Amino acid sequence: DHVNCGQSTNDIFPTAIHLAAATAIRRNLIPALLRCGASLRDKSQQWANVLKIGRTHLVDAVPMTLGQEIGGLAQQLDKSVDRATTAMLALSELPAGGTAVGTGLNTHPQFGRRVAQLLAEETGLMLEEAVDHFEANAQRDGLVECHGQLKAVAVSLYAVANNIRWLASGPRCGFFEIALPDLQPGSSIMPGKVNPVMCESLMQACCRVIGNDQTITLCGAGGGQFQLNVMMPVMADTLLESIRLLTGAVHAFAQLAVDGMTANVEVCRQAVERSLAMVTALNPLIGYEKAAALAKEAFATGKTIRQLCREKQLLSDEQLEAALDPRTMLGPK
Fold it and tell me: Residue 134 in contact with residue 226, Cβ under 8 Å?
């Protein structure tokens, strides 16, 4: 009798869901994201002086460093930590104390506040009694908001894994600007072929989480009639699955892919010299129209921009070397 006197499944179930998800994000997901982000940041610092060609629309653009590129991916992980923290905070209000329909029937007036305070002390989470128990009992908007942030994390992680996958493509006929650790000795039919399996594993986990968000969204929108959302079981299962998938996939990706990545410095350097986009630096010196014509001729003949400039004596050697020095293109002038 004492157990059921001051609580109902209608307020305690959602309270338990909030606690389980917030705890999993704090203890598992955020450390995994921090671990992966730190590894990417370390690579960006190691490769700060590795020149490479940038790409927009998958087409050669102006030079940058590999460190700058990987640093951008590391920043996505930093932002993912912020989003995971926001996801956790979306669960901070606890419905406990609303009992059956939000009125708090049969419970002590301080029950909700004291339960939230005790749980906050026990877990270290930022928890508080729901501001409005009628809203807190009836709707699961907090779960929708939480998973929405996790979807954003999944989108970022997908992009990070896919970019690294592209950079490692090859080894002879792709970009191959970075090399990933060999985890599989050959495909089922092609000896020696090594696939970027950890990138693709993370991408698949992210796809599942992005799909899970639709389940959470529909359950949040359509499951809460009057004083109870009847879709809590599937929402809880889906949310916890997403946290578990992201945590495991990110840990594996960091340990088995990012930590062991190496830069192919010479491949990066050669791509810079061959790139037609190097002509962009000549715009202030010879004009856009002449630069565009030079790029077209370089593409047609297979010669570099530098070679054509020397043949046509468009600039002095000193001017040419200064203009086509890729290190002068790494930031604003």
Answer: no
Q: Where are the domains of the chain?
A: 2-182+191-268, 276-327
Q: Which of 18, 80, 108, 187 is catalytic?
A: 187
Per-residue confidence (pLDDT) for residue 190, from 0 to 100: 87
What pLDDT sits at residue 192? 83
Q: Give the pLDDT score at 1.
A: 60
* Separation between Cα atoms, residue 63 and residue 108, nearest integer Å: 67
In percent, the amount of the chain with pLDDT more than 90 equals 90
Which stretches of the chain score pLDDT less than 50?
none
Radius of gyration over alpha carbons of the chain, in Å? Answer: 27
Distances (CA, A) of 292 to 82, 300, 305, 310, 323: 43, 13, 11, 16, 16
CATH class of 276-327: mainly alpha
Q: Structure tokens of 17? A: 């869901």
Tell me the CATH architecture of domain 2-182+191-268.
Answer: Up-down Bundle (1.20)
188 catalytically annotated: no
Q: Are 263 and 216 in contact (CB under 8 A)?
A: no
Does the annotation mark 2 as catalytic?
no
Q: What is the pLDDT of residue 188?
A: 80
Q: Of all residues in the chain, what percent carry a pLDDT higher than 70?
A: 98
- Model confidence, pTM: 0.94
Catalytic residue among 2, 44, 57, 188: 57
The CA–CA distances, whole Å, from 17 to 7, 29, 203, 246 equal 15, 16, 27, 18
